[in-house]
Amino acid sequence: MEHLKIDKSGINNSNLKQQHGIVIPCYNESSRLELDTFIAFAKKHKGATICFVNDGSADMTRSTLANIKNMVTDNVHIFNVSENAGKANAVLRGSMYLYQETEVDTIGFLDADLSTTFEDYAILIDTLLASPEKKIVFGSRNMGGEGTTIERNPVRKLLSEIIRFLIFMVSRLKIKDTQCGAKVFDRSLIPVIYEKQFYSRWLFDVEILLRLKRTLGIQGFYKIFIEKPLTSWVHMDGSKLDMKDSLMIPLNLLEIWANYGPLPLLRNKFKKVKEYTGNLISKFSKLNLG
What is the edge-to-edge ordering of all strands in the sheet holding 48-55? Predict the structure, then answer.
């Protein structure tokens, strides 16, 4: 089939025989989905298979995705989840669907709002193909260079730096941006990455790293991993990460550490602590502090 490539006019097809799967997790995205962009991309790039995962949306997302499918029948797939289970589950379900039902060579994911564009996703693909020994590429918003356009709220940027430090303390892997919503993996790694459900709804990227580190070792991981700076990234309004989720991040990281670390006896204790703390945070986040 065909591979995605960029030139000055946008994304164009080349003759490299590669097929690429892209998971788009969607929860209440009907008002933010750029239908024309998705439809035009899918029609033009038959080497790309897009799997939209409708994560139990309560709005018109299901019918909106059905409209896209009606316009592009061959390389667009819709996976509907009955109840909302979070981005982690949506990405897992979509990735395993592509792995089991298609013959794509790479499987990655993008946010539904396209804060990372298809153009940048194509650069990630090109990065893998340019380095045959690499099997993982993360888009990075923290490696800006000349010509890059990264728009981030200063408060969110500070919060991201704090989270990045905490993630390093848990993973002990030096990665500039673990939470960017654009990542690509070689097909061979999918069973390792998505072997079972994630503990976290939002920090599954950290769990992916820990699963790969456990399987490959630190040096083995670095040998096949690469980060690529994005040329552009813009924060879109309508984030699904609410106050409760934000306040739970440190506790979720502790839970991840307990489940993947050397102290399995802590797991049950953390379950109880998480439940108790989650209830307190839920009550706090509902208070009217205005």
Answer: 76-81, 48-55, 20-26, 106-109, 183-186, 136-140, 225-229
Residues 6+ apart with CB under 8 A from 237: none
Check residue 134 and give its pLDDT: 97
Please, what are the domains in the chain? 3-237 (3.90.550.10), 242-290 (no CATH)
Q: Which whole-number Å values give the CA distances from 269 to 92, 256, 275, in the listed order? A: 26, 13, 10
Within 10 angstroms of residue 181's Cβ, the number of other Cβ atoms is 19
Contact 37, 21 (CB under 8 A): no
| Tokens encoding 113 | 């709002």
> Tokens for 252?
């979720």
Burial of 100 (0-12, 13-18, 19+ CB in 10 A): exposed
HSE (CB half, 13 Å, CA atoms) of 179?
A: 17
Residues of the chain with pLDDT under 70: 1-17, 142-153, 155-156, 233-246, 262-290
pTM: 0.81
Write down the pLDDT at residue 42. Answer: 96
Residue with tokens 């489940």: 259
